[in-house]
From TrEMBL:
Name the record gives this protein: cytochrome-c oxidase
EC number: 7.1.1.9
Record's keyword terms, sorted: Copper, Electron transport, Heme, Iron, Membrane, Metal-binding, Respiratory chain, Translocase, Transmembrane, Transmembrane helix, Transport
Any one cellular-component term (Gene Ontology): membrane
Pfam families: COX2 (PF00116), Cytochrome_CBB3 (PF13442)
Organism: Methylobacterium durans
Membrane topology recorded in Swiss-Prot or TrEMBL: Multi-pass membrane protein
Length: 355
């Protein structure tokens, strides 16, 4: 009976969210019935003109009763907090093998791009049973990425990146909505998530127009925007080497240490003077307004592809990335198809490093 009142469940997270919702509803209904029942019972028993002993109530509500009731309420509160928080924390931590999809919201559409370069507008095709990691940002105002069947909702914020992930459990087409009022045509900001069998998804993927993945696009942009002029090993400008930067601890002027992740790289591109690397002068110009969110994602993917501090990486003077990635620029990432062997094809996350 309750199933007909709830949206369809189509993700791994949906049953947990529904269980929490129904649990909270049941606890709330019990408390309401208890309070209403006591009010009605006391109103009848201790009504005006009643011969009931009115001194019995203070004796009934003893100190021990108050302590027990308060302790029980605290226990229920802590349990509900733990139960709900555990589901929310899971929703933020994507599996390491998740398909990475960048989502850019703008008035009034959703633009998605997978790590292998496939772009879509107001649509996202994914395979069933595979975790999908979403990296969201907005080009203008606050939007909210909401898929009712997945019980997934996450804000897309201008100038920031937020993340979410899901694993679809059934095939079909599911509504994608914006649930943050974002302007005149907010109600028309609609899309759809198409969940396919892995074999069908592989065929769909191979039928898409050939194109470079994010890392290869970022490599070209890195040169076109003049980044290599400062960050190349042979440059006369004293700027950090980006090879092996990803995931490494970076010592900043002032003594703080940060991890070189997507958020750090994005800030380095847009606000390079905020956190300056120790030993370097704050000479890098800001690219705020000069690079789109999509271009920042491409640059981040390229820097990530240069390697992390935990493994060997290509220096900027070596052969280009396209000559090192199996299949070249047009290669589709097998990691996007469940069951296919995983390669070292790079994936994106945020912007470039500061001087």
């Amino acid at each position: 009976m309750l199933a007909g009142l709830m949206p369809e469940q189509a993700s791994e997270l949906a049953p947990r969210v529904d269980a929490i919702f129904l649990g909270l509803t049941a606890i709330s209904a019990f408390i309401v019935l208890l309070v209403v029942g006591l009010v009605v019972a006391f109103s009848i028993r201790f009504r005006r003109g009643s011969k009931a002993n009115r001194d019995a109530l203070p004796n009934l509500v003893s100190r021990e009763f108050e302590i027990g009731w308060t302790a029980a309420t605290l226990f229920v509160f802590v349990f509900i907090f733990w139960w709900a928080a555990s589901a929310e924390i899971r929703a933020f931590v994507a599996p390491k093998d998740a398909i990475e999809v960048h989502v850019v919201a703008k008035q009034w559409m959703w633009k998605t791009q997978s790590a292998n370069g496939v772009r879509e507008i107001n649509e996202l095709h994914v395979p069933v049973g595979a975790p999908v990691r979403l990296i969201l940002t907005s080009q203008d105002v606050i939007h909210a990425f909401y898929v009712p069947a997945f019980r997934l909702k996450r804000d897309a914020l201008p100038g920031q990146q937020t993340e979410a992930w899901f694993k679809a459990t059934k095939t079909g087409t599911f509504h994608l909505l914006c649930t943050e009022y974002c302007g005149t045509d907010h109600a028309r900001m609609l899309g759809r998530i198409v969940v396919m069998e892995p074999e069908d998804y592989a065929r769909w993927l191979s039928a898409q127009p050939e194109g470079d993945d994010l890392a290869h696009q970022g490599e070209r942009l890195f040169t076109a925007r003049g980044c290599a002029g400062c960050h190349a090993p042979g440059s006369a400008v004293h700027a950090p080497d980006l090879a092996g930067l990803w995931g490494r601890a970076v010592q900043l002027a002032g003594g703080r240490t940060v991890t070189a992740d997507g958020a750090y790289i994005r800030d380095s591109i847009l606000q390079p003077k905020r956190d300056v690397v120790a030993g370097y002068e704050p000479i890098m110009p800001s690219y705020a307004g000069l690079l789109s969110d999509g271009e920042i994602q491409e640059l981040t993917a390229y820097i990530r592809a240069l390697g992390s501090g935990s493994r060997s990486s290509r220096r900027l003077g070596e052969p280009p990335l396209s000559s090192r990635v199996p299949g070249g620029p047009e290669a589709r990432s097998p990691a996007l198809v469940p069951g296919a062997p995983v390669t070292d094809t790079p994936t994106p996350a945020g912007p470039a490093t500061r001087p």
